[in-house]
Amino acid sequence: MIELLSNLGISSLKPVQVQAISKGLFFHQNILICTPSGSGKTLVGIMAMANILLKGLGSAIYLVPYKALAAEKETQFKKIFQPNHISVKAITGDTEENSVKP
User: Fold this and answer.
1) What is the C-alpha radius of gyration for the chain, rounded to an integer number of angstroms?
2) Which CATH class is domain 2-99?
3) 48, 23 in Cβ contact below 8 A?
4) Which residue in 31, 39, 72, 86 could disulfide with 35, CB within 3.0 to 4.6 Å?
């Protein structure tokens, strides 16, 4: 995780990120994060996904409310995960069923 954060240029965590870790983020605990924009929710999601994906423990789904945001996150997550040979795919309400592979 330290290497991932370092590759992202992150040298310190915001309070919400520290709290998520202390509440069990890396121990498969369910956590609901409700904080204002810019508080660090996306990085909590990235750390949770990385914990599962890089250990080969399963798949991850990251939900967003808007198609434009889905495209933005798809681009962001591809930069983070594809170097580790992990595929990233945005699926929206208008995605063709046959273009989605498990």
Assistant:
1) 14
2) alpha beta
3) no
4) 39
Q: What residues does each domain of the chain span?
A: 2-99
Beta strands in 1-80 (DSSP E): none
What's the predicted TM-score (pTM) here? 0.85
Q: For residue 14, is pLDDT > 70? A: yes
User: Exposed, middle or buried, 46 (CB in 10 Å: 0-12/13-18/19+)?
Assistant: buried
Q: Over the stretch 48-89, which tens digit does the pLDDT of each residue have?
A: 999 999 999 999 999 999 999 999 999 999 999 999 999 999
Q: Which residue type occupies 69?
A: L
Chain mean position to CA 58? 13
Supply 99's token pair.
């273009």
Exposed, middle or buried by CB within 10 Å (0-12, 13-18, 19+), for 101?
A: exposed
Q: Nearest Cα to 17, choosing from 38, 6, 82?
A: 38
